[in-house]
Amino acid sequence: MLTLEPIGYVRSPHRELADAPRQPHAARGIAGQIELVADRNLDDAICDLDGWEYLWVLFWFHRAGGYRPKVLPPRSQGKRRGVLATRSPHRPNPLGLSVVRLEAVRGLVLDICDVDMI
Known about the structure:
five-stranded antiparallel sheet, 0% helix, mainly beta, two-stranded antiparallel sheet, single chain
C-alpha cells in the first residue's frame, strides 16, 4: 500500500478545469503560491530553496473526475488516445508534474509563477 500525505497546497487563479492552461507556454506569467503545511517540519527542508529559479512540483489532480483509459485531447482531430500518451488528468493515479518559476520564499509560502495547476 502506498500512502501519500500532502506537504502543501497550490493557490492559483484557476478556479475551473476549463480555466487551467493546457500547455506550459500558456501558463507563462500566471502567479500563484504554494502554502506548505505548518506541522510537517518543513522549515529546514526548504532551507536554501530561494537559490533556485525553477521548481518541479508533483501534485494530485484532485478534480480529475476519475480514470479513463482513452481520452480525446485537444487538437487530436477527433481521435481518442491512450491516456498515458497524453497530458490528461484522467490517469490511473491522478498525479501531475509541473515546472514553475520560484519568485520568493516567505516562510512556508512559496511565491511561484507560470502556474498551470488548479
